[in-house]
Amino acid sequence: MSQTRTGHCMCGRVRFVARNVPQVFGACHCDMCKRWSGNMFNGVSVVSGDLDLTGQDHIRRVQTSEWAERANCESCGSPLWYRVTEPEFEPKTHNMALGLFDDTSGMTLGHEFFVDRKTSANDLPKDRKQFTEAETLALFAPEDASHDQGDKQ
């Protein structure tokens, strides 16, 4: 089942509405994705014609290989998408960074690329300390700071 989803970068200058978004997303462990996103890149493929972007003047596109580009927000640095640019590649899609979406409920990991490059950094031990939003804010945020989903942290 696919649906319409919205999202934005950290600063909100780049926003989007994506239609027919699949419930299944992928992860990439290639070295470029790790450097670009800070770890594995989690993205969901959206057919380019189903993607409405605002804030185009804040998007920085970089041809990162002979066949693909990556884009980020020039203002806040948020990774936006990975896209194959080869003319023969069909369908034309934007692999949108999962973290941009306002709501990812019901979405599941369905495939991984470059699994031979996967590192132990993605193996989460069961006995790790986990902090809720409230606990994290109590540790790091000033007492008078308000926190709203999507605001800068």
Description:
- This protein is mostly beta strands.
- The protein has one domain (3-119): Metal Binding Protein, Guanine Nucleotide Exchange Factor, Chain A, CATH 2.170.150.70.
- Helix content is 10%, strand content 37%.
- The protein has two helices and ten strands; from the N terminus they run βββαβββββββα.
- The protein has helices spanning 31-37, 133-140; strands spanning 3-8, 15-21, 24-28, 41-47, 51-54, 59-63, 68-73, 79-84, 93-97, 108-113.
- A seven-stranded mixed β-sheet has the order 6-7-8-9-4-3-10.
- β7 and β8 (79-84) form a beta hairpin.
- The longest helix has 8 residues, at 133-140.
- The model has no long low-confidence stretch (mean pLDDT 91).
Structure keywords:
153 residues, mainly beta, Metal Binding Protein, Guanine Nucleotide Exchange Factor, Chain A, 7-stranded mixed beta sheet, 3-stranded antiparallel beta sheet, 37% strand, globular, GFA family protein, Mss4-like_sf, zinc
